[in-house]
């Protein structure tokens, strides 16, 4: 008999300790503790929460922002690595699933960075490392393209869980790739972006994207968005005085939970810091699919054919057998076994 989970979810709206990796990891562990103390079984964190977003790309020229890029590279982390290990230990200690956004540094490239979402189980295993497929607009000055090697839905204690970062939630093919794998819980991570065009309501745009995914796929979405702290604004203003006005616009951050009918559950946060909680019953994903099941009976797979290349993108491929074996050890962590428990 089908028995889908019911659980409490938490999603965080906060600012990192800007470019301070150790302090931000400590903050993440504190927030994991707080969410677990409030009986949450899943907690979602914003995009590149460890340890900050490259706002200089939007308020400075590439030359002016270049020193900040170096700071970001030095504060970025490797996955797996000591910082994720500490967060995974906190997840296991508090028996809570965690999705966290990080600036990931390539282990073989000190200036190659990825916008990465890490999914951790409630027993402390790294389930996935999803690198944002296409950095958005000015972000191309900072991050490399990701690949689809971890564009996967993970089997967790709270149900089938998938993740996408920010603008990826606008990509219907990426979203369909997750839905087609049975996703029922989706995490969409964002950053506050007040430097968008003047007539663009960022908070409403985030809500709209989450509602579209939920209504089309009949799933639940946790939206987690960062905020711009006074510390971040001051750091950017010190290098570029015009940044103060550019970063002060309201309605730039939305955090909340959206149900399979596309409606927001409870009270979301707009711009303010805090944690949003919601009760989730995955059985609510069943009945709406009688009308529209876009990964099942309400589609024509004899007409439409989507193919996803899941091969990992590497700078080089070695053909000698011993090197190939070593390479497999490096990449197989994305499909962990019992031995990968942290």
Characterization of this structure:
- A hairpin with a 5-residue loop joins strand 10 and strand 11.
- The chain has 342 residues and is α/β, with parallel strands linked by helices.
- 28% of the residues lie in helices and 24% in strands.
- Residues 325-342 have low confidence and may be disordered.
- The strands form two sheets. Strands 5-4-3-2-1-12 form a six-stranded mixed β-sheet. The protein has a six-stranded mixed β-sheet with strand order 6-7-8-9-10-11, covered by helices on one side.
- The protein has helices at residues 21-37, 56-59, 62-75, 82-94, 172-179, 202-217, 230-239, 243-246, 321-331, and strands spanning 6-13, 42-44, 97-106, 109-120, 126-131, 154-156, 159-165, 185-190, 220-225, 254-258, 264-270, 274-281.
- It has one domain (6-291): 4-Layer Sandwich (Nitrilase/N-carbamoyl-D-aminoacid amidohydrolase), CATH 3.60.110.10.
State the main characteristics:
342 residues; 12 strands; alpha/beta; single chain; 6-stranded mixed beta sheet; 9 helices; hydrolase activity; Aliphatic nitrilase; disordered C terminus; Nitrilase/N-carbamoyl-D-aminoacid amidohydrolase; C-N_Hydrolase; globular
